[in-house]
Design a protein that fits this description.
The protein is of the alpha+beta class and 423 residues long. The protein has two domains: 115 residues, Rieske [2Fe-2S] iron-sulphur domain (Rieske Iron-sulfur Protein, 3-layer Sandwich), CATH 2.102.10; 273 residues, Naphthalene 1,2-dioxygenase Alpha Subunit, Chain A, domain 1, CATH 3.90.380.10. 17% of the residues lie in helices and 24% in strands. The protein contains nine helices and 18 strands. The strands form four sheets. Strands 11, 12, 13, 14, 15, 16, 17 and 18 form an eight-stranded antiparallel beta sheet that branches. A hairpin with a 2-residue loop joins strand 2 and strand 3. The chain is globular. The C terminus is likely disordered. It binds FE2/S2 (inorganic) cluster (FES) and fe (ii) ion (FE2). The site of FE2/S2 (inorganic) cluster has 9 residues, from loops.
Length: 423
Amino acid sequence: MLSREENQLITQTDRGTPMGDMMRRYWLPAFLTEEIPTPDCPPVQVRIMGEKLVAFRDTSGRVGLVEEACAHRGTSLYYGRNEECGLRCIYHGWKYDVDGRVLDTPAEPAGSTFAERLRHTAYPTKEIGGIGFAYMGPPDRMPLFPNYEWAQMPTEHCYVTKSYQVCNYLQGLEGECDSSHLSWLHRVFDPNQHHLYKADKAPAYETEETDFGMRLIALRTVNAEETYVRVSAFCFPNFCALPVGGGDHRLDGFEVHFYTPIDDTHSWRFDFGFKRSRAVTDADVHRRQQLGDDHKRYANADNHYLQDREMQRTVNFTGMKDFLVHDSCATESMGPLFDRGREHLGASDKAVIAVRRRMLDAAHAFERGEEPPHMVTDPELNDFRHAESIAEVIEGRDWHVQFPHLTSTVEQLLDQRDLVSRA
Ligand code: FES
Ligand SMILES: [Fe+2]
């Protein structure tokens, strides 16, 4: 349960709010590479963090993410012409490059220096594994992109979708910190599937604070000798690494689910995954079948998530297709911004509570002028492969013994690893 003030603090992300300004200090997923696939292709509108932006890929392949409203008189640059290394406004032809420089103001008299004195809002971007990340914070505070394992993967080993969520980002993010819902929301009645979730419907949770955020460990009893361990990682500011993609088998990679606010009552869910040993296939991107070209799900609140009551009786717990639809129904049906003063948290919510507390502590500290957690500035210390996700059946109960690398600090890991070989 959160007080009204704390609920506001953790859910509001417009510029000028503590959480909004803190989130802007990180690299945030903003769009997909496939939305602007080729040089000089049409620009796309990007709505994140309460801001209206346009992303475009210029003639040389560089990506710009700029304020949508033209600096002249505000016409949308989404309608602009993407030509010769810049985006040109259709109203009077002002032209911008990816860094927000005004290259041309053709309606001004020859010799005018007007353009040189202007700078349009433009955010630095980075493309990793099919996601366009943006840095929207102060230019002199831009951190390095953390070297997570997933961020090192060749693009053909990665898959990603983005989906529109009609609720605050935190409702989605909290679903990722909640292993117990696997045994219910995502339950299928086929006795040959997901037997490990079903074996123990009340997992024990352990949480621990880490340099990247929180490690979340769900422990399910398999039998007297064995434990099913699922390790997830909450990483600041808005995502979790999760053991998804292996069924009941050992994982060949994992998924990372990000929640970028659109505004305080809508969000983008980015579902990224990778395979260590192989290129991905269409079958890995099953979520795409749930989504239209506008990144909205076909199954949504307006059609009751296409729930089939007969299917709910005989096939699975929800009567809905695909995990994405289950999760979206669970989190959107709370309403666009849930009042966390009304909830009743139990033992199964231990990880949700821990992540919230860590985020709130960070936001309070940020308000006092402290640096946010997980700001990576030293290339020598940039190794976050321990922000990892694992799902395995182990002997006994002590997962620390099985996965000793998970509990090491960056400094300890650097002693064991050769960073240079990864450069
Ligand atoms: S409004 Fe864009 S050039 Fe005038
Ligand atoms: Fe889920």
